[in-house]
Design goal:
Among the domains are: about 70 residues, no CATH class; about 50 residues, no CATH class; about 130 residues, no CATH class. The protein contains 15 helices and 16 strands. α2 crosses α3. The longest helix is centred in the N-terminal third of the chain and has 16 residues. The two termini are about 45 Å apart.
Length: about 500
């Protein structure tokens, strides 16, 4: 049984006035509050169900038209949200030098392909290609304070440019290969000809890689004056292009490093167990070839929290990125099983500091889990998306209007237990789905041309791996996913 929504929730009304001047009239502002209330209190978070539960609405299309037609601007709402969060957390945030910005992406799976920009994206967690949206997000962490900052939607090149349609137009007799290598060769053959088509060329210019989107998110965070000094991201966003390196002015960064990345052999000296320098042939050596050459006696134990890692660190030069600090880490003293490689532009930092900082990337993973379960992220979708300004991206997150849920937080509160370097499957619901009060896969919310409001809940922890959510009247525990080395460095 679902209770009707007779008025906006007190939690919503307590903070909604901050956004009042961004809406043209009282009705728009009321729809804004009703929708946020529905996201909080209803199990089924579809637009149709929220509309059905709002008693005072005489016309059940009001909420749909609020998203598709009402003249309000999602960018302004998000700008106000970020400013409000920063103002509200001023007393509990740590200094700017300890502030972190995290870049990551996730998959929001859908059943069916009737949604704009839905496509088959690679899920590295289970090696599948589900139908999904692939948002790239930025997340701010400063001690007990953590919240999402912004979002961009990643669209695959073939979907963004309608590549298959143009291939069929220009090469009607050529079958499109299905295997990865053959398709790549086919791209090299036909793309130069397709680019001579003005329509295809226009779509080609709209394509943005994940690195492009990551840079845009970084620039947006700087524009929002988010007080951070360290950027955390995974190996997908670590590129050699000078534009990436130049996009990090006065910012320290830490990333996972792909094991096939090359190191300049003349930039370091590696010694064997007897202390004699090893001769490395060629100008470069791959990380995966270097690790077996490191003597076991060179590893040192580093303990962070209740986890101990056996690490080796070295200052090296990465082509395109210059001098960096490398940290190779195993999860056991026998140096067996998988290992992870961290890299930072701060060559003067030691292994404990780099590991401790990178472990604070974990809150973005718990946010994805909560968003897909408690907050109905997996259920939010729309059949048609209305592009705004200069980007035609997915609006479900980007156009969020987020009420700050003022959970009690003090400096004594601890971060969620930092128990691995990376993530569980980016497309999977939370492992707590069996005991969530909110259905993890509610019916899709659709509204023609719709823009979506989104409730972002700050995660305030009450202990190791425990997040207290008064909205749900329960504690959710972040389970151990096997330590730092479960992350798949793509």
């Amino acid at each position: 049984m679902q209770l009707p929504i007779v008025a906006p929730a007190p939690l919503v009304t307590a903070h909604a006035d901050v956004f009042r001047d961004l809406f043209e009239n009282r009705c728009q502002f009321h729809h804004f509050q009703n929708y946020l209330t529905g996201l909080i209190v209803l199990d089924n978070k579809s637009l149709a169900n929220i509309t059905r539960c709002v008693l005072e609405s005489a016309d059940k299309t009001n909420l749909s038209r609020f998203f598709s037609e009402a003249p309000w601007f999602q960018d302004r709402v998000n700008d106000r949200r970020v400013a409000y969060l920063l103002q509200q957390t001023k007393e509990v945030r740590r200094p700017k030098a300890d502030g972190l910005l995290i870049l990551d992406d996730t998959l929001c799976e859908h059943v069916g392909s009737l949604f704009d920009y839905v496509d088959r994206h690679y899920n590295h967690g289970d090696d599948t290609y589900p139908l999904a949206h692939n948002p790239v997000t930025s997340h701010y962490v400063s001690g007990p304070v953590r919240f999402p900052v912004d979002l961009r939607l990643y669209r695959r090149y073939e979907e963004c440019t309608q590549w298959e349609t143009f291939v069929q137009q220009h090469f009607p007799d050529r079958p499109i290969p299905t295997t990865k290598k053959e398709r790549a060769r086919f791209h090299k053959e036909v793309d130069p000809i397709l680019l001579e088509d003005p329509k295809f060329q226009k779509l080609h210019k709209q394509f943005r890689t994940k690195i492009d989107l990551g840079i845009a998110l970084l620039e947006a965070a700087i524009q929002h004056t988010v007080p951070f000094s360290v950027l955390l991201f995974d190996s997908w966003y670590l590129a050699e292009e000078p534009r990436v390196h130049g996009a990090l002015p006065e910012k320290d960064w830490i990333s996972l490093l792909k094991k096939n990345r090359n190191l300049e052999t003349n930039s370091f000296v590696l010694k064997d167990a007897t202390g004699k320098p090893l001769h490395l042939e060629g100008p470069h050596i791959a990380v995966e070839d270097l690790v077996p050459l490191i003597p076991p006696t060179a590893y040192r134990a580093v303990t962070v929290g209740d986890k101990t890692y056996w690490t080796f660190t070295l200052a090296v030069r990465l082509p395109g990125l210059g001098k960096v600090r490398l940290v190779v880490s195993f999860k056991n003293a026998e140096l067996t099983g998988t290992y992870a490689v961290l890299v930072s532009n701060r060559a003067d930092w030691d292994a404990p500091r780099i590991i401790t900082l990178y472990l604070q990337r974990w809150p973005i993973e718990t946010f994805y889990q909560d968003g897909k379960t408690h907050l109905g992220l997996m259920s939010i979708a729309c059949a048609t998306l209305k592009p705004f300004k200069n980007i035609g991206v997915w609006c479900s997150w980007r156009i969020r209007s987020c009420i700050w849920t003022a959970f009690p937080v003090t400096d004594e509160r601890k971060l969620a237990h930092q128990n691995h370097w990376g993530s569980v499957s980016s497309a999977s619901p939370s492992p707590h789905a069996s005991r969530d009060l909110v259905c993890a896969r509610a019916p899709s919310t659709r509204a023609k041309g719709s823009r979506y409001l989104w409730l972002f809940v700050r995660q305030a922890t009450t202990g190791y791996g425990e997040m207290r959510s008064p909205l749900l009247a329960q504690n959710t525990t972040v389970e151990d996913h096997g330590g730092l080395h479960t992350f798949d460095a793509r």
